[in-house]
Specification:
Layout (H helix, E strand, L loop, with lengths): L1 H16 L11 H42 L32
Helix pairs in contact: 1-2
């Protein structure tokens, strides 16, 4: 992860801070300040994104806990539509044989 971040930061630095054509061997004021600003901004946004992702993950976990705590049985006699037959496990008289007439 750190190698990927370094690679992306280096690419951004070269694209934004290193001119294609230069006339002097020494860095100008803007060229010497650019890497510091570029790296600082990159690290700031990287830190902000990490915090935001952690926050969203925590919210998702809390939501899942609330859903699990508040949800009742998925299939039970009280949740059955009147025209839908519940599974046999909900039939009260299990000892009676099932009669099939063809």
């Amino acid at each position: 992860m750190m190698a990927d971040m370094y690679s992306r930061m280096s690419s951004a630095y070269q694209w934004k801070c290193v001119p294609l054509h230069y006339k002097e061997a020494e860095l100008s004021k803007g060229e010497s300040v650019c890497p510091d600003r570029c790296v600082s901004k990159y690290l700031d946004i990287h830190e902000w994104m990490g915090k935001k992702l952690t926050e969203l993950s925590t919210q998702g976990e809390e939501l899942m806990k609330r859903v699990q705590q508040s949800s009742g049985p998925v299939w039970g006699p009280e949740s059955v539509h009147p025209k839908v037959r519940p599974p046999l496990s909900h039939v009260s008289n299990k000892s009676a044989p099932i009669q099939c007439h063809l």
